[in-house]
C-alpha cells in the first residue's frame, strides 16, 4: 500500500483522495436548490393551490413532475417574478410553431444542392 499524506480538514482526518471527494460532495450539497411542492409555493406566494397548478400548466412556473407529484425549485420561484420563465416558454412555443416551416426550408435547400 502506498504512503498517503494525511491531514486535518474541518476536524476530519483525510487523505488527498478523500479530501477531493469531500469537497465535491459538500459543494454539490450547497449548490442544490431547495425544492417545493405546489402547495408550499402557493403558501409562499399567497395564492391558491389551483392557481399554482394553472401557472405550471401554462408554463409560467417551471416544475418537474417526479412520479405523481410536482417539484418546483427555489430558483424557478425567483425567475417567476423576473418574468424569465414565461418568456422562455413563449419563445419555445413559437419555435415549435415554426418547426414545420424550418423543416420545409431545409428540404428545399437540400434539393437545391
Could you describe the 3D structure shown?
The chain has 113 residues and is α+β, with helices and mostly antiparallel strands. The protein has 2 domains: 1-32, no CATH class; 34-112, Multidrug-efflux Transporter Regulator, Chain: A, Domain 2, CATH 1.10.1660. Helix content is 64%, strand content 16%. It has helices spanning 16-31, 38-45, 49-58, 74-82, 84-112, and strands spanning 6-9, 12-15, 35-36, 64-66, 69-73. The chain has a 3-stranded antiparallel beta sheet with strand order 3-5-4. The chain has a two-stranded antiparallel ribbon with strand order 1-2. A hairpin with a 2-residue loop joins strand 1 and strand 2. Helix 2 (38-45) packs across helix 3. The protein is flat and about 65 Å long. The model has no long low-confidence stretch (mean pLDDT 77).
Short description:
Helix content is 64%, strand content 16%.
Instruction: Supply the number of helical segments.
Output: 5
Proportion in helices: 55-70%
Under the CATH scheme, the architecture of the largest domain is Orthogonal Bundle
| Percent range for β-strand residues | 15-25%
Order of helices and strands: EEHEHHEEHH
User: What structural class is derived from the secondary structure elements?
Assistant: alpha+beta
Task: Tell me the major beta sheet.
Answer: 3 strands, antiparallel
Weakly predicted, low-confidence segments: none
Stated plainly, the CATH topology of the largest domain is called Multidrug-efflux Transporter Regulator, Chain: A, Domain 2
Amino- and carboxy-terminal Cα gap: 64 Å
Strand order of the largest sheet: 3-5-4
How many distinct folded domains?
A: 2
Number of strands: 5
Rg from alpha-carbon coordinates: 24 Å
CATH class of the largest domain: Mainly Alpha
Mean residue pLDDT: 77
Tell me, what's the shape?
A: flat
